[in-house]
Amino acid sequence: MSAKNLKSSELIEAIRTSNLNQVIAALDAGADVNEADIHGHAGLPLRTACFSGNVPIIRELLDRGANVNATTPDGSGAPIRLALRAGHREVAALLIARDAEIPLGIDVDPALLERAEILAGRVPENYIPDLEFEAVSFGGAASKVSDTPPAADLDNVLEFVSALPEPEIVQVDVKGGAYGVDTNVLALDFEKASGSWEKVERAAPSKDDGAAS
Q1: Domains of the chain, start order
Q2: Quick one: pLDDT at residue 18?
Q3: What are φ and ψ of residue 146, in 5° steps?
């Protein structure tokens, strides 16, 4: 094959040198955005750009009508296959966002698909999934709030409610434990640790509380 037959078009040369201005100039001058390779397979400009990984040039080609699913002897999806082969994940996400079909046998991880959704404008850039946490903070640690009281005598359960606008209830079993049955010590320590909680229920007084000392 002669050197003349191997000579690239101005568009392909501009893509290979990552010169966006020359790419635009070549397209404005009438260059074929879906130019065929020497074997007659269309889509050489986009394939070349995807392998080199120049995102602005790829966007320009896509905006000008480059076929994101142009076929080659290997089948459809040559642009995305070349992008992934070269390690250009952002390019692959962009192609998926522009309706590129993922070829059979190509595994695309969920993070790349999520990025494609953002690039396509279907998910906001700052999107954070809604996560529900059933926990409260006490003493710097998170504790799960149970729907049912502890498996203990309910007479030994105290309830503390947050003084904040949206209170949450925590049940504390004071039978035994680190503080024994001294509920005053327990309440003082609880309030000192959190600063925003108050005791709202006290244990029933013992029979000796009313006795004279």
Answers
A1: 8-119 (1.25.40.20), 143-203 (no CATH)
A2: 96
A3: -80, 145
